[in-house]
């Protein structure tokens, strides 16, 4: 396994609008992208960009709100009504190789590899196999090279 950069931290929220106000007014975020729907994954998504000294893309906060009643994050919000940290996402250079390596280590991958919110292939690994942390693995976007 070749660990890449921490791309984003997934934060579940009952209201992206309220979370945007929080990151803008409390945390001082100045680069918040337009929210968009990702119905295939049952979520509405909004990226909050954090700055870096280098001019490279900073780690993002990925706000996720349920898209509908069947959303996979409804159960998380039932347990955490105010929302909270849901998953972390690391980049890898080669998604298929990473998947094979995790499977080879006996890690339970939650679904087929699919296209995630950044338009690149992703998969999730079961938190019980990852020291309690729901972990998203994402292929590094080509344009960031
Ligand atoms: Co994510």
Structural features, described:
The protein is α+β, with helices and mostly antiparallel strands and 145 residues long. The chain has one domain: Roll (2,3-Dihydroxybiphenyl 1,2-Dioxygenase, domain 1). Helices cover 18% and strands 32% of the residues. The protein has 3 helices and 9 strands, in the order βαββββαβαβββ. The protein has helices spanning 16-25, 74-79, 95-104; strands at 6-12, 31-32, 36-38, 43-49, 60-66, 84-92, 114-115, 121-125, 135-139. Strands 1, 2, 3, 4, 5, 6, 7, 8 and 9 form a 9-stranded mixed sheet that branches. Strand 7 and strand 8 (121-125) form a beta hairpin. It is globular, with a radius of gyration of 15 Å. The two termini are 20 Å apart. The mean pLDDT is 94. The site of cobalt (II) ion (CO) has 6 residues, from strand 1 and strand 6.
Ordered list of secondary-structure elements with their pairings:
Elements: E1 6-12, H1 16-25, E2 31-32, E3 36-38, E4 43-49, E5 60-66, H2 74-79, E6 84-92, H3 95-104, E7 114-115, E8 121-125, E9 135-139
Bound molecules: cobalt (II) ion.
């Amino acid at each position: 396994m070749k660990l890449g950069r921490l791309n984003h931290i997934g934060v579940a929220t009952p209201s992206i609008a309220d979370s945007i106000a929080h990151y803008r007014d409390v945390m001082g975020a100045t680069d918040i992208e337009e929210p968009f729907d990702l119905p295939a994954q049952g979520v509405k998504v909004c990226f909050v960009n954090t700055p870096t000294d280098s001019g490279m893309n900073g780690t993002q906060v990925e706000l996720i709100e349920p898209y509908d009643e069947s959303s996979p994050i409804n159960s998380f919000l039932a347990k955490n009504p105010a929302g909270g940290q849901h998953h972390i996402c690391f980049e890898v250079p080669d998604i298929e190789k990473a998947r094979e390596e995790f499977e080879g280590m006996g890690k339970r991958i939650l679904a087929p590899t699919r296209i995630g919110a950044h338009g690149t292939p992703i998969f999730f690994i079961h938190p019980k196999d990852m020291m309690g942390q729901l972990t998203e693995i994402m292929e590094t976007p080509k344009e960031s090279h």
